[in-house]
Write a structure and sequence with these properties.
Helices cover about 55% and strands about 5% of the residues. With about 300 residues, it is α/β, with parallel strands linked by helices. It has a four-stranded mixed β-sheet. Helix 1 (about 5-10) crosses helix 8 (about 190-205) and helix 2 crosses helix 6 (about 145-165).
Length: about 300
């Protein structure tokens, strides 16, 4: 068991807040390729009309911090946002959605607002810094601890965009709903990829990051986001509810408490119903299916490169 995943088992209520949702890595091209296949699987109801060609726009803003120049160069050379544009083309939105990568005055963050998803170079650097330096016993590689969190947070922000632009009703906190959106899409991948991405995402949430100004308990409990440990347990529960065999070890090893695991299948069924009924009709299934094989080829190459670094 990895130290980070074991941290969830030993310190379930004391994990400090990590950076807010919003992470991409220099392997964003691989991340987007993964999501291509996942988007195809969401469209499980009647296909929606074909999306407009200009629905998804993008902007590469040069970083103001010279230390982030390498990240900018790699994601631009890898045509990361172009891949995202292609990836999201099956999604029918009433207005264009702009994807932007930019500097954020030293703050590691990402957010959705006014039909724009902003991704900070500071956040890209953060995930690279906190990736594991070795493969983990759970079968998660160094590359997975980059790709998993990156995919998770990108999907989280996309979830906010989908809720807003499609006027999807959300009961409960929207941040939790966006986490669920992300987990559901990751679980549409092949079994092996789903496991890698889910556990990679849980790794980051379980990892305590140093904070210059630790938040008080009052701030943590009143924040719009659930605490990192809660978010990690929630995504693991959804994963276990989706496939008890694939994720059996997280319960057997008491990473996910057995008492919580008893209700995970119900949680996943509720999420499946919501995704299928509310978001499925807005996916052009025919268009999405064209990209189903792209991510396998792309991710394999990117994972090999990352694990060599």
């Amino acid at each position: 068991m990895s130290p980070q995943l074991d941290h969830l088992q030993s310190h379930r209520t004391t994990v400090s807040d990590v950076v807010r949702s919003g992470l991409l890595s220099r392997s964003l091209a691989a991340v987007t390729a993964i999501l291509l296949g996942a988007m195809a699987a969401i469209g499980s109801v009647d296909a929606a009309p074909r999306a407009k060609p200009d629905q998804i726009r993008y902007k590469y803003i040069r970083p103001t911090d010279p230390s982030h120049q390498a990240i900018y160069d790699q994601i631009k050379q890898g045509r990361a946002l172009e891949l995202l544009q292609q990836l999201l083309s099956p999604l029918r939105l009433p207005h264009p959605l702009t994807l932007k990568v930019a500097s954020c005055d030293g703050v590691p963050d990402a957010w959705y607002g006014d039909e724009v998803v902003t991704l900070c170079y500071e956040l890209l650097a953060e995930i690279l810094k906190n990736a594991t330096t070795r493969d983990l016993p759970a079968g998660v590689s160094k590359a997975d601890t980059i790709l998993g969190p990156a995919l998770d947070v990108f999907l989280h922000e996309t979830g906010h965009a989908v809720f807003d632009m499609l006027q999807i009703p959300v009961l409960g906190r929207e941040e939790d709903a966006a986490d669920q959106f992300s987990a559901y899409v990751m679980l549409r991948l092949s079994k092996a990829e789903a496991r890698r991405m889910i556990l990679g995402a849980a790794y980051l949430r379980a990892k305590e990051l140093p904070e210059a100004e630790p938040l008080s308990s009052r701030d943590k409990f009143s924040d719009e986001h659930s605490m990192p440990a809660q978010r990690a347990f929630n995504v693991l529960c959804i994963a276990y509810g989706a496939d008890k065999k694939l994720f059996a070890d997280i319960v057997a090893n008491d990473i996910l408490p057995k008492q919580r695991a008893e209700t995970c299948e119900i949680d996943y069924d509720d999420l499946t119903f919501a995704m299928t009924a509310l978001i499925g009709p807005h996916i052009d299934k025919t268009s999405a299916r064209k990209f189903h094989e792209v991510w396998t080829r792309t991710v394999s190459a990117r994972r090999t490169r990352l694990n060599r670094q």
